[in-house]
Amino acid sequence: MVAIPKPVPMTPQEYLDWEEKQPIKYEYMNGQVFAMTGGTIPHNEVSLNLATALKTHLRGKGCKVLMADVKVGVSEEGPFYYPDVMVTCDERDRRATKVIYHPCLVVEVLSPGTEAFNRGKKFKNYRNISTLKEYVLIDAREMTVECFRPNENGVWEIYNYGEGDEVTLTSVDFSFPIEMLYEDVVLEEVEE
Fold first, then answer.
1. Using one digit for the tens of pLDDT, what is the confidence trace for 114-166?
2. Where in the chain is the domain with CATH 3.90.1570.10?
């Protein structure tokens, strides 16, 4: 993400009105806007593989599977992000056309430039969404998936998956071999 110089912070409504007229997507946090940069082909393929599988799994169950061009609002005051994949099964999002506020699953595919932010500040903000049951980080450079879920005490626990594992997304009652995410994907080189 790249910050856009703006002398005066925007209100959430100013951001929503302004961003609608922009040729590229911007995320919003604490009055500031950040341009979304393009991803890699492996990043896109992993996202598409998951979204396609989720769409098939959830067909007819009243859920929406959405990809990178759809905003999620942590609240009506923001922050506003563009996750790689998300699912909402909440009736309040049924007629949404611009922003989803009640996802049960949010997925980010990691890239070197966004990994720290996705693990840190963004995850901290996502945890404020009361309907969120699962936050998933997928590596586009190696076969690794991390699923974060709140336990019965509200403490977020991590579940790690690697090559040969069956990934379980409890938020949408869906299990699949991790290899499905990486089907036809040429993994990016990991720098030592």
1. 888 999 999 999 999 999 999 999 999 999 999 999 999 999 999 999 999 99
2. 39-180
Under the banding of pLDDT at 50, 70 and 90, the label for residue 192 is low
N-terminal to C-terminal alpha carbon distance within the chain: 24
Please give the class, per CATH, of domain 39-180. Answer: alpha beta
148-175 exposure pattern, b = at least 16 Cβ within 10 A, e = fewer: bbeeeeeeeeebebeeeeebbbebbebe
Q: What is the pTM of this model?
A: 0.91
| Nearest CA-CA partner of 12 in 28, 25, 27, 34 | 28
Rounded-to-integer distance, Cα 38 and Cα 79, Å: 20
- Rounded to an integer, the average pLDDT of 25-29 is 90
Cα separations (Å) of 30 from 76, 106, 116? 12, 21, 18
In the structure, how many helices (H) and strands (E) does the chain have?
A: 4, 14
Asked if residue 190 has pLDDT above 70, the reply is no
| Residues 6 or more apart whose Cβ sits within 8 Å of residue 169 | 105, 134, 136, 147, 175
Region of residue 91 (phi > 0: left; psi between -120 and 50: alpha; otherwise: beta) = alpha
